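Bug report (template v2)

What were you trying to do?
Predict the complex of my protein with adenosine monophosphate.

What happened?
Run completed; filing so the output is reviewed.

Input:
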Amino acid sequence: MNVLILGSGGRENALAWKISQSPLCTKLYIAPGNAGMRTLGENLPISVTDFQAIKTVVIEKKIDFVVVGPEDPLVEGVYDFFKNTPEISNVAVFGPSKEGARLEGSKEYAKEFMMRHHIPTAGYKSFTAENIEHADAFIDSLKAPYVLKADGLAAGKGVLILPTAEDAKREIREMILGQKFGMASTKVVVEEFLSGIELSVFAITDGKNYKLLPTAKDYKRIGEGDTGLNTGGMGAVSPVPFADEAFMKKIEDTIVRPTINGLYADGIVYTGFVFFGLINVEGTPKVIEYNVRMGDPETEAVIPRVESDLLEVLYAATQGNLKETAFKIDQRATVTVVLVSGGYPEAYEKGKVITGLENVDQNSIVFHSGTKISEKGDIETAGGRVLCVTSYDNDFRNALKKSYKNIENIHFEGVYCRKDIGQDLMKY
Ligand code: AMP
Ligand code: GLY
């Protein structure tokens, strides 16, 4: 079949790498793709939210199957667009409906869903300009620190964790009345702070059944020892060593199954990835957030561990055959370390030539995030997160050594990576 992947990051590079290996894949297209994907398929210069342009290429290139990488097109309703457009309504789309995507697109919607289906999460209340006068009393009823979340999508920046009630009271006004995150913060969810270690769990679902992908731990802060500003993610380790069988059983029993059953019970059309952002609160898993897509860089660690034909599994989900499809996971660990542009996640320069990729040995796979081919034919930086270096080993510690060794071969002006990926997991 002809496959189109929407997206241009490391996540989509990992998906394209895996899908291109499938005997079921006749031709692979990626829109818009990046320099790392051009050897796996054909990049098409189309934005992921330009639905009309997507429709045109889907018809022109006789695409049978679309895999949606990022959240924006999902939240904007790309699934519904396909199903409601007669010329392309028979094309299979892996990604939830617009209603399903609200689990990520609205924090309040996700909270209400969890309440309805008794899924463990932090206590909360939501506020708008209408009831902001009640926010102070709610903040005073919580213990420090205080968690404020813009209801809508804010490019991963919409969550504030504030040390004092005064800060929280000031910031909630900035968010709602001062539109700190634009329209995304006209509604704000104020949450109880949960203390514990975070992990990411992923499922592939057809809206009724699911297959669990390997777990991963992400490193979100720019600085070593989890300091400094939040980023998209600086590295990942899979599996998460503390997520043993008993803990995973709790996660499936109290979170994964109730979520999938809840989607079904609510009549929400959902064929796609579910990303459970979880926190281990003294042995009890709770949901921090849902995402309706894979994580980045978690995908670059998780997808290389899928032994089965991923294309077959994703397509089966769209045909309602997920239950019958075998799904095998490589027992080795993987790690991925992200190389970023100097200055990221604040201002950084683009267009730096990347050299040394040819010296990376077979112990590692390099997935591209923000890269492009320059007019001269060089591979250049084109984003904050630039490359991800993934390695396998029976022990994640050795996998880390392989990634860090290969990173020494790769150069571009201003390159930075965290040297402490996985350090916090050494004790397990
Ligand atoms: P989110 O965008 O919801 O994933 O939030 C971003 C980050 O803020 C999470 O990865 C957590 O580290 C942190 N966070 C969010 N909600 C809470 C909470 N209720 N308690 C503690 N930390 C939180
Ligand atoms: N790595 C976190 C995310 O993709 O949201």
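What did the reviewer find?
The pocket of adenosine monophosphate (ligand 1) is lined by residues 122, 147, 149, 159, 191, 193-194, 198, 220, 277, 288-289 (CB under 6 Å). The longest helix spans residues 245-265.
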